[in-house]
Each structure stands twice: as C-alpha cells, then as structure tokens.
C-alpha cells in the first residue's frame, strides 16, 4: 500500500523561467485537437465555434487573382465566450496544438504571475514574437490586473502575436460586479477591441450524465480511498489545506499538485471568507487540469461556497469550481 503524504508539506518555489516553461496545455488537453471536439447537436453554436476557431488557426488568406491582395484586416485575437463545460478550453488547446512556431498556453493567473516574477519588461521580452498566446479563464478581478493585461496584450499584438482567450464573461463586461469597472472602461474596451468574440452555448458536459452532487465519505474512509491507484496521495484536514493555500502563490498551485493521483480532504466546511474561497477555486482548477481525484468528508464539496458568494460578482467562478468538484469526486470527466 502506498504512503499517504500531506499537502501542507509541499512548498514549491517556482521562478519566472520555470513558470514560462509550464505555459503549455494541461495534461487533460495534451492531445486536444479540432477533430476530437464533439459539438452538441442541440447547440449549433458549438459547431459554428469549431469552424470559426479553425479559420482563425489558418490565418487571414489573400484574395484576388494574379495580383492578390490580403484579406481585410481582422482582429488579432479570438475570444471564446460561454458557460462552463461547453468545450472552450478544448478548442483553445486544439488551436495551440495547431499553431506553428513559439507559442504559449496558460491561465490568466499564470500570465499575471509571470509578469510579477519577471517584471513587465522582461515578461514582454520573453513573450514578444510568439506566434500565439493562449489565455484560459480570462477574468479580471482587480484594476491592477486590468491594466497589466491590457498593456501586455498591446505589446504582444504590436509584435505580430495572435491572441486567443476563453472566459465566462464577454470581454467588454470583464470586471463587472467586482470593482469599479466604470473607472477602467478605457482599459477594458481596449482589451475588447482586440478580440473577435465567438459565443458558445450549451450544457456543462461534466453534468450531462451524472447527478449534480459531490460524493462524500466518512473521515475513516478518506485515507483508505485516496490510496487507490499507483500515484502519490495526500490526506489533510480541510482547514489545514485552506491555511496552506494562503502561504503559496496561486501560480505555484500547478507545482503543488504535480504528481498527485488523489487528494483527501477531511472535515470540509462551508467557506465564509471570499479570499479563502477564491484561493480554493484556483486550487480546484489546478486539480482539475491535472485530473487529481478528490476524496472528501464533511460538507459536500458542491456546497462549499456560501450562498451570498454564489449571488455575487464571482458567481461564474464558483459555479465552474462546483462543476469541477462534482467531476473530481465522482470520477466523471
């Protein structure tokens, strides 16, 4: 039987260059392609989005005969807007795999962390000239991030880099309900003007064939169940993990869960502090990317966010996390 470790013993230190080296699609999407995307026939926008992203991958084409002219200038970015679980990240990863040359794929928080680790000028120098920068989970949670990403994308677009992004919020509505967006309209509009928005409708594929509840077990069962499988496992009190997440920058959560097969959380409770809740969302995202199984006792993990949080400005983040928590505790993919 394999040894069960503690997540709180893991304290990864990742520098800027290491962060950049990790800017590739997560393991779950390592083989994502346009041909493996399965549009839901009940939602035509999914097939339309697939075709639109494929056209974007091909790039602008010249028109005319012998003396060809370039096609009318198109925006340098494509933005996949839709609910969680409709395949946006799959399409983004497929686009990344189809792109030639130097390219990057990361979450919004990973790019802001890269700027924080390297400094703005060095981050621009590192990314400048890339054929594609793919940004998953594009959400602006504070004015500083708004301005940093606006400047960063402006520098990259000027160097010829194409941008692709996903989010649950249309680009001209980023930041709504979270800070005084009116004070930053210029930055937000500048971001929106760089993208052609593609709307994707549909149901969360993770919840099409399962009941919408996370699985719970008794405390005594957590450590036994996490040991199923060959990979490394951890088991901790939920409150200890929440406290530990506060000591690790979210950009390092990728390294925090690296190599794990299962994570046990004993004594799950409803989170009342929004800062703790948002850290937990970022942690769940990394668990989901790495397909780390969750075994939990206490409150069901789909009930971990307080009702007032689900009614606030971060509602879409919490709903996405709940969807992923259900999948990770029930074995759905």
Structure description:
With 333 residues, the protein is of the alpha/beta class. It has 2 domains: 31-203, Rossmann fold (3-Layer(aba) Sandwich), CATH 3.40.50; 206-330, no CATH class. Helix content is 40%, strand content 15%. The chain is built from 13 helices and 9 strands. The strands form 2 sheets. A 5-stranded parallel sheet has the order 3-4-5-2-6, with helices on both faces. Strands 1-7-8-9 form a 4-stranded parallel sheet, sandwiched between helices. Strand 4 (132-136), helix 6 (143-158) and strand 5 (162-167) form a beta-alpha-beta unit. Helix 4 packs across helix 5 and helix 5 (120-127) runs parallel beside helix 6. Residues 175-184 have low confidence and may be disordered. InterPro entries: ATPase_AFG1-like, P-loop_NTPase. This is Cell division protein ZapE.
Q: What does this entry show, briefly?
A:
With 333 residues, this protein is an alpha/beta fold.
Keywords:
globular; 13 helices; nucleotide-binding; alpha/beta; 4-stranded parallel sheet; 5-stranded parallel sheet; Rossmann fold; 333 residues; 2 domains
Tell me about the largest β-sheet. 5 strands, parallel
What portion of the residues fall into strands of 2 or more residues?
A: 15-25%
SS summary, helix count: 13
- Architecture (CATH level 2) name of the largest domain: 3-Layer(aba) Sandwich
CATH superfamily of the largest domain: P-loop containing nucleotide triphosphate hydrolases
Order of helices and strands: EHHEHEHHEHEHEHEHHEHEHH
Give the spatial strand order of the biggest sheet.
3-4-5-2-6
At the fold tier of CATH, the topology name of the largest domain is Rossmann fold
């Amino acid at each position: 039987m394999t040894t069960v470790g503690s997540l709180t013993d893991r304290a990864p230190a990742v520098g800027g260059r290491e962060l950049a080296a990790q800017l590739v699609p997560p393991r779950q999407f390592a083989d994502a392609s346009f041909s493996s995307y399965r549009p839901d026939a009940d939602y035509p926008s999914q097939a339309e989005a697939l075709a639109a992203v494929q056209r974007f991958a091909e790039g602008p084409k010249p028109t005319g005969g012998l003396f060809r002219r370039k096609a009318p200038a198109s925006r340098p970015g494509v933005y996949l807007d839709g609910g969680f679980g409709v395949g946006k990240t799959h399409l983004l990863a497929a686009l990344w795999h189809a792109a030639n040359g130097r390219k990057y794929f990361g979450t919004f928080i990973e790019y802001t962390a890269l700027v924080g680790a390297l400094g703005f000028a060095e981050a621009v120098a590192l990314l400048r000239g890339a054929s594609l920068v793919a940004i998953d989970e594009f959400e602006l949670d504070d004015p500083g991030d708004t301005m940093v990403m606006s400047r960063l994308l402006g520098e990259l677009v000027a160097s010829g880099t194409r941008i692709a992004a996903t989010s649950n919020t249309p680009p001209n509505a980023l930041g709504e309900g979270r800070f005084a967006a009116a004070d930053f309209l210029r930055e937000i509009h500048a971001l929106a003007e760089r993208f052609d928005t593609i709307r994707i409708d549909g149901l969360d594929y993770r919840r099409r064939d399962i009941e919408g509840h996370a699985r719970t077990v008794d405390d005594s069962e957590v450590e036994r169940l996490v040991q199923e499988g060959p990979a490394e496992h951890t088991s901790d009190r939920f409150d200890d993990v929440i406290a530990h997440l506060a000591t690790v920058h979210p950009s390092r959560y990728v390294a925090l869960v690296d190599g794990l097969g299962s994570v046990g959380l004993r004594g799950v409770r409803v989170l009342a502090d929004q800062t703790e809740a948002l850290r937990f969302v970022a942690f769940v995202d990394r668990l989901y990317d790495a397909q780390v199984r969750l075994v939990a006792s206490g409150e069901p993990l789909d009930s971990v966010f307080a009702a007032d949080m689900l009614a606030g400005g971060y509602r879409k983040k919490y709903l996405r996390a709940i969807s992923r928590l259900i999948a990770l505790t029930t074995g759905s993919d």
